Amino acid sequence: MTRQEFLRLTVAGLGAASLPRALAAAPAYDFWFTRLSYQSGDWDVDQRMPASVITALIDYTNLRVDPKERVVALADPKMLTAPFCYLAGHKLVEFSAAERGNFERYVRNGGFVLVDDCNHDIDGLFAKSFERQMAAIFGPRALRKLPNAHPLYRSFFKFPGPPNTGLELNGWGDDLVHDYLRGIEIGGRLGVLYSNKDYGCEWDYDWRNKRFLAEDNTRFAVNIVMYALSV
Predict the structure, then answer these.
(1) Tens-place pLDDT, residues 19-72
(2) 28 partner at 20 to 30 Å CA-CA among 8, 83, 116, 229?
(3) Which of 183, 178, 210 minimizes the C-alpha distance to 194?
């Protein structure tokens, strides 16, 4: 079952009566960028990043892409209908009961969340607190290193592994630069992709010169979305 099929089944399972009319109907887009807000921390980081990813998808693919970012609270059941979600920040991540329940239900039932650690402080507050949440939900060994042979790196463009960024100062609070990403797989399918590279800052757009600041990394965003939609 692909995530598009998951999306349709999720909407059906929730029931049209429990969803706004626009969500109960068939989606008009193949992809929409959903940013997850959460009660703790600072979720509204890298505010131009979604526009950059959306532009790349329009330029490189034939997807029907919603041109506007959607911000949905993690505690809101509407997030369960998104084919792709983005969660980031610098500070504490401490899910409420509703946030934790939706995150687990979404991932276990086929959803995809890109989580980007924007914290360049040695204390690694975002990383440490987010990893505690994942351990509590999915188990202490759920987050694992992704091999460079993972299908993610060839889902659209070909990459030898995760591209580095010019903004990466340290890893997940350990003051090291890592050459891999981590993730949580459910039933052989990646449900959480966890980055310490601050892709949100790297995937920016130079509006004055109308060019991507990091074209290769923006292409990697296309890979992530295409993997999320097709697997």
Answers:
(1) 443 344 446 899 999 999 999 989 998 888 999 999 999 999 999 999 999 999
(2) 116
(3) 183
Nearest alpha carbon to residue 80 among 58, 57, 110: 110
Nearest one of 111, 99, 79 to 186, comparing CA atoms: 111
Query: What are the sequence ranges of the domains in the chain?
Result: 3-230
Kindly indicate the confidence band of residue 200, based on its pLDDT and cuts at 50, 70 and 90: confident
d(CA 175, CA 53): 28
How far apart (Å, rounded) are the C-alpha atoms in residues 128 and 116?
13
Q: How many CB atoms lie within 10 A of CB 111?
A: 27
Paired tokens of 191 = 């449900």
**Stated pTM of the model:** 0.86
13 — phi, psi (to 5°)?
-70, -35
Contacts of 227 (CB under 8 A, 6+ apart): 112, 151, 152, 155, 190
Letter string b/e over residues 112-145, b meaning 16 or more CB atoms within 10 A of that residue's CB: bbbbbbbbeeeebbbbebbbebbeebbeeebbee
**CATH for the stretch 3-230:** 3.40.50.12140
Question: Within 13 A of 69's CA, how many CA atoms are on the CB side?
Answer: 17
Distance CA 31, CA 45 (A): 21
Ordered alpha helix ranges (H), 16-96 = 21-24, 49-60
What local confidence, expressed as pLDDT, does residue 187 receive? 92
